[in-house]
Amino acid sequence: MLVSSISLWEIALKHQKGRLELGTSARELIGRLKSIRGLQILDVDLETWLASVELAWAQSDPADRVVVATANLRNCALLTSDAKMLEFYPRAFF
């Protein structure tokens, strides 16, 4: 299973703003995730940033674009509840 680091950044921001309860700090949660066998946290590299800009998608949220570009570059399915991602990315599932 792959997780983009930008998704973890978004989780941390929502937690910091009080919009998401984690039961622990974001840093602790990410530390726990890093120890899960079979889970890989992907850094956002230059190729992913460029691919996110090249998407033929009206979505302007850079984090959403990076998540979709990551899935596309890795030829992966994408698990999301985001309606815009579900509509745009053919391998997105809820």
Q: Care to describe what's here?
A:
There is one protein chain. With 94 residues, the protein is mainly alpha-helical. It has one domain: 5'-nuclease (Rossmann fold), CATH 3.40.50. The chain is built from five helices and four strands, in the order βααβααβαβ. A two-stranded parallel ribbon has the order 1-2. α3 crosses α4 (62-74). The longest helix is centred in the C-terminal third of the chain and has 13 residues, at 62-74. The radius of gyration is 14 Å and the shape is globular.
Provide the fold topology.
Layout: E1 2-4, H1 5-16, H2 26-34, E2 40-42, H3 46-54, H4 62-74, E3 78-79, H5 83-88, E4 92-93
Parallel strand pairs: 1-2, 3-4
Helical proportion, percent range: 40-55%
CATH structural fold name: Rossmann fold
What kind of sheet is the major sheet?
2 strands, parallel
In the CATH hierarchy, what is the architecture at level 2?
Answer: 3-Layer(aba) Sandwich
- Indicate the proportion of strand residues: 5-15%
Keywords, please?
5 helices, 94 residues, mainly alpha, 11% strand, 4 strands, two-stranded parallel sheet, globular, Rossmann fold
